[in-house]
Known about the structure:
By secondary structure, the chain is α/β, with parallel strands linked by helices. Helix content is about 35%, strand content about 20%. The chain contains six helices and 13 strands. Strands 6-5-4-7-8-9-10-12-13-11 form a ten-stranded mixed sheet, with helices on one face. A three-stranded mixed sheet has the order 1-3-2. Helix 2 packs across helix 3.
Amino acid sequence: MSLRLKSRPRSSGAIGSNASLRPSTERRFAARARKRRLLSLRPLLIGVVLVALLAGAGWVVLGSTLLAVHHVRVLGSSRLDPVEIEQAARVPQNRPLARLDVSAIRRRVEAMPPVQSATVERTWPSTVTITVVERKAAAVVKRPGKPLALMDATGVVFADVDAPPSGMSVLSLSTPGPSDPATRAALDVVASIPAKVRATVLSVTAPTPASVTLTLASGLTVIWGDATNSARKAQELAAVLQSMAAGASPTTTSAGSSSGTAGSGKAGAGSVPVPTISANAKTLDLSSPDVITVK
Length: 295
């Protein structure tokens, strides 16, 4: 007897199901792979975008005329014409503001004699602002072979004038300038004199730092000496002028001069002791630290 084994046929439904699932799984795997690739490229793409943005911004700031110089504004000038300052500054038009050498512009402006100091600022998007501080005249200087000129308190000569401004003293100096000791001494003396008295000083001569002499509008010559104790000497001068205005009679010495020591004369609270002085006195010597002499 023989036995025959029959194999069970495979279900056609199962085969069809696996076949239909395979393409769907492959699509999912492919989509995931693409997503992973995109995610891996994201930092690179972000970097490229950032570089492009930075390059564009750099070009706008450094290379284009969008943020370049189109206007120059001058502030603080009174003696100088703003156009003069702008011409001296030589600000390059259409130069990007970020590439502007503001220090060089400032140096060019400060090279102008009437300018004491200057600041230069970038005013975005297209303006350069120049602010100047001009020198203030402390005196008029008379120079050998040259016209009268204004001088500031540091001894810098900065502008020629035809005549002295009202109430300003004229200094007679051989070599006027900031480094000249006689110039500094004369300026120290002028600065120490009260404004009311200073207005009566016509001229100041200083052949040397120790021989400063003032000539007043009244004709009185004041021998100041050097600039030491100038504050005290200025008080003495004011007191002498007040005494002369009052028409006091002089105290005559054997030498024919009116004199007094720091301890003599009439003195009130806070006043400087001075000798009695006549209104026709011609010379006042304040060079001694202890004695006022009037001739």
